[in-house]
Amino acid sequence: MIEECKARYIDLVIAKSISRFARNTLDCLQYARELKAKQVATYFEKENIHTMDAS
């Protein structure tokens, strides 16, 4: 899925929670930053976090 995001086939990733998105915090941050740099938003439902929000 990450490769599809990089190829711009996907512009929003929705995950139930951070723990379902990546195995650990460092991986989660790395992927979220990588996707954000490619203008791909990530939304974590349980934590109500949207990576493209300014706050």
Description:
By secondary structure, the protein is α+β, with helices and mostly antiparallel strands. It has a single domain (2-50), classed as Resolvase, N-terminal catalytic domain (Rossmann fold), CATH 3.40.50.1390. It has three helices and three strands, in the order αβααββ. It has helices at 2-6, 18-21, 25-37; strands spanning 12-15, 41-44, 49-50. The protein has a three-stranded mixed β-sheet with strand order 1-2-3. A hairpin with a 4-residue loop joins strand 2 (41-44) and strand 3. The model has no long low-confidence stretch (mean pLDDT 90).
Look at the structure and give the mean pLDDT. 90
Assembly annotation: single chain
Inertia-based shape: globular
CATH superfamily: Resolvase, N-terminal catalytic domain
Number of β-strand runs: 3
Low-confidence parts: none
* Terminal residue distance: 26 Å
GO molecular function: DNA binding; DNA strand exchange activity
Organism: Gardnerella vaginalis
Domain Resolvase/invertase-type recombinase catalytic: 1-53
Pfam family, one: Resolvase
